[in-house]
Amino acid sequence: MITLDELRKKAQNLYPAVLQSAGTGELFFPKTIPANKQPDADLAALHRQLAPLVAASKERAGFGYSIQYETRKTRIHGTQDLPTAFTFETREDYLHFLEKTNEFEQFERDAASIVRQFPVLAGWPAAQPLRVVQYAGRWDDLLAVCQWFTTTWLPGRYYLRELTAPVHTKFVEQHKAILTQLLDILLGEQVNSSASTFEQRFGLRYDEPLVRIRLLDVAMPGFKDVSLPVSTFQAVHFPARQVFILENKMNFLTFPPVPEAVAIWGKGFQVGILKNINWLTETEIFYWGDLDAHGFQILSQLRGFYPRAQSLLMDWETLHRFQSDWGAGVPTTAILLPGLTEEEYRVFNFLKNRNLRLEQEKIPQDWLLAALSR
After folding, report:
1. In sequence order, which residues have a C-beta less than 8 Å from that of residue 236 and are 6 or more positions away?
2. Predicted pLDDT of residue 33
3. 242 by DSSP, 3-state: which?
4. 3-class DSSP string for 193-223
5. Structural domain range at position 93
6. Per-residue pLDDT, 369
7. What's residue 328's pLDDT?
8. Predicted local distance difference test score (pLDDT) of residue 289
9. What pLDDT is attached to residue 219?
10. What distance in Å separates the CA atoms of residue 94 and residue 12, rounded to the nearest whole number?
């Protein structure tokens, strides 16, 4: 026999659909939940299970479910009237049973407010009813933020802390997930859907990562070592014919002078911030990283942005020339690295299979100078 707790759980599972029906106007009640369990073989246990079900029924409590019985002749207990189903005749009965009357009424008010202020969201409360319930008591503020974005917001003008919506900006920071769902619909094509952060997605200013650059040409005017926000780096066109991207900071700092060239500190896998830099496509790019599996992974990543990028001192000759400086690498499961040359792929597999690394700072400066002269 189904227990009262089991019946309550089955009723609770219907709650999202009940909320949806309020938004769509669908008639959901009466709703029947079958008993669908064999009665307990122990007659005393059967009566103990049945008693709470009867006590909580509408016939006894004045609300909730009605019990449908069926007279059965059982082999063990003889003839018994056993429940076959439990029916909630009205939504009010159902909500009262689950003690969700107030919550449901709040849901209806919030859903109506959402649609009244933003008709374009007409289908959203029915599609996301548990979201509406989850943020009960906060919808006035959430909708105020949405109003600000749809009436005042200008892409690229504001930091999040500069929003002038009538709520504390901490509230926005704490509710980015639900605001993202709403603003994706409200702002449509203005949303940068490929962005990974709230600020980037909705055109807010943010603390951008910095790109550190050294001007290697002594004749170039201005600062020789400067860090720029990514957006500024994208906009500034350096008068460079060659660009050297270095994984290691010390190699970046000690890279020798080269006419019409700049050096960029790639910071390992953070090299991804260099994608979509238009002026880099007009230069000859060289990448110099550690001679290890991860170094070639970074090279492959960079070639995803700039297919013509070349490797520097990441070859068999350099690897074997400084064999005494080999050390242990960091294991990797990478197998396919798009864009590598045949030789680079052989070196990668050699290093990966033996878990070896030749750190770039262990390569003498004169070896680098000789390579640059070639």
Report:
1. 228, 279
2. 93
3. strand
4. CCCCCHHHHCCCECCCCEEEEEECCCCCCCC
5. 4-99
6. 94
7. 94
8. 95
9. 85
10. 10
The set of residues, in sequence order, having a beta carbon less than 8 Å from that of 221 and lying 6+ positions away, is none
Could you give the 3-state DSSP secondary structure of residue 131? helix
pLDDT in tens, 105-157: 999 999 999 999 999 999 999 999 999 999 999 999 999 999 999 999 888 88
Same domain, 364 and 215: yes
As given in the structure block, the two tokens for residue 196 are 């990974």
Q: Where are the alpha helices (DSSP H) in the chain?
A: 4-13, 15-24, 43-55, 58-61, 91-98, 101-117, 124-127, 129-134, 139-151, 169-174, 176-187, 198-201, 230-235, 249-254, 293-305, 316-321, 342-354, 365-373
pLDDT at position 84: 87
Residue 199 has a pLDDT of 93
Q: Which residues of the chain have pLDDT under 50?
A: none
Structural domain ending residue among the three candidates 48, 78, 99: 99
pTM of the complete model beyond 0.90: no
Residue 212: beta bridge partners? 227
Amino acid identity of residue 333, one-letter, is: T
**Same domain (yes/no): 227, 366:** yes
Work out the angle between the directed axes of helices 15-24 and 4-13 (0-180°, nearest 10): 40
Instruction: Indicate the residue among 163, 184, 201 that finishes a domain.
Output: 201
User: What is the total count of domains within the chain?
Assistant: 3
Q: Domain check: are 83 and 149 in the same one?
A: no
Amino acid found at 220: M
